[in-house]
Amino acid sequence: MPADVAGVMRALRTAGFGAYVVGGAVRDALVGRTPADWDLATEATPDQMRIIFPNAEYENRFGTVGVPTEAGIVREVTTFRADGASSDARRPDSIIFLQRIEGDLARRDFTINAMAFGLAPESSRRLDPVTDSALIDPYGGADDLAAGIVRAVGDPAERFREDALRMLRAIRFAARFELTIEPATAAAIQRDAGLAARLSGERIGAEMDGVLAAARPALALQIAYDLGLIAAIAPALAADWADEIPKRVESIGGAAGTPAYDPLGRLAELFAQIVDDEDVAATLESWRRPRATIHEIRTIRTIDRMSNEAELAGGGRARAIDLRIAAAIANGDARDAARQLRRRIATGRASACATSMLAACEAADADALPAAAHDLAIDGDLLVAHCGEAPGAWVGELLGQLVIDAAHGRVPNTADALLSRAAEVRRSSLP
């Protein structure tokens, strides 16, 4: 536990209040992961916490106080609470502050997140809130985590109607920790999956990013489709769904247990079955993905189609070189040709000649073969001066031809050879 978190807990205990680490930090610690966030809970009200922590910030109605620490980090401490009904299937319309941690854990989404680590206020003041703390686990979250199960706290239907995002969170936790969803929880998701369509695009996109960033997303994606969540958040994807999609998505990424190193590739593969680029863009826009991400997905899909066409034409070194040039035009990076071939091979969508094409692309990348005008030993200004003509569209066209000639070895990539070839091409093109 970070020293500043321990310091906040000790300050709460010194003032006579219980202090607990709650939620994801407890879950992550139990599976041997370093928690990204350390959320705390106490029966102290926000006003009481601001007396203990004079610099604390409190600008919400949910009892969460931001406590600045000496580490330069603001730690969130939330008063134990129960949530009222939710009219938007996202946030409670009202809250009630509680005195016991067990009541606070009852409002949590899943048993694996309904655990706490700390000391109750009636515990001896001689006990340290870190070294002497105990695990509070009224719903068996530790057992479910060990058994590989996502289980809702209490009535799953109530949990999902309180907050429909929890259905997508269940899928993300299944992907992140390689869990299955227990039957009653799964049945409730299937019954109310349509509520997910009402969620904000940002939250849907963030949860799907989390699924795709997991080491093993395949099972979670299939569950999302089987339970109707894909139909709710991406109708076009559900319409073109194929059983092989989850495995293909999972094939793109790092080794088991490591973060995915190609999240954009996985996102593109998720939509690879959809033919219409506009349908893909519309779904990503509905998920409020950044424009840059949507552009990257379009580019990946474009290069994927070009790779497929090159393979259908028989592959070979010449087509691999042309693919590098096309990739450089599409995305400014000739190495995208090799990246896309690797993706296609990993997913099993490539033809037999893709492996040799990939080797040719990798060799060309290593040799820095020209794929764009900036790779040439001359530039447009030198070309204009050598030809003695006014600048115009012919300059870009001629540089493009020189790129092709140099890449295919028809002319050395040296200034003299390129200028000589340029003059020859220019003469043959004039009336």
Account of the protein in words:
The chain is elongated. The protein has four domains: about 5-145, Beta Polymerase, domain 2 (2-Layer Sandwich), CATH 3.30.460.10; about 150-275, cca-adding enzyme, domain 2 (Orthogonal Bundle), CATH 1.10.3090; about 290-370; about 375-430. Helices cover about 50% and strands about 10% of the residues. It has a six-stranded mixed beta sheet. A two-stranded antiparallel ribbon has the order 5-6. A two-stranded parallel ribbon has the order 9-10. With about 425 residues, it is an alpha+beta fold. It has 22 helices and ten strands. The protein has helices at about 5-15, 25-30, 45-50, 100-105, 140-145, 155-160, 165-175, 185-190, 200-215, 220-225, 230-235, 235-240, 245-250, 265-270, 275-285, 290-310, 315-330, 335-345, 355-365, 380-385, 395-405, 415-430, and strands at about 20, 40, 65-70, 75-80, 80-85, 95, 115-120, 135, 150, 180.
**CATH architectural arrangement of the largest domain:** 2-Layer Sandwich
Shape: elongated
The number of helical segments is 22
Runs in which pLDDT lies below 50 for 5 or more consecutive residues are none
Overall pLDDT: 91
Question: What topology emerges from the helices and strands here?
Answer:
Blueprint: H1 3-14, E1 19-22, H2 24-30, E2 39-42, H3 46-52, E3 64-68, E4 74-79, E5 81-83, E6 95-97, H4 101-105, E7 116-119, E8 134-136, H5 141-147, E9 149-150, H6 156-162, H7 165-177, E10 180-181, H8 183-192, H9 201-213, H10 218-226, H11 229-233, H12 235-239, H13 245-251, H14 263-270, H15 277-286, H16 291-312, H17 317-331, H18 336-347, H19 354-366, H20 380-387, H21 393-407, H22 415-429
Parallel strand pairs: 2-4, 9-10
Antiparallel strand pairs: 1-2, 1-7, 3-4, 5-6, 7-8
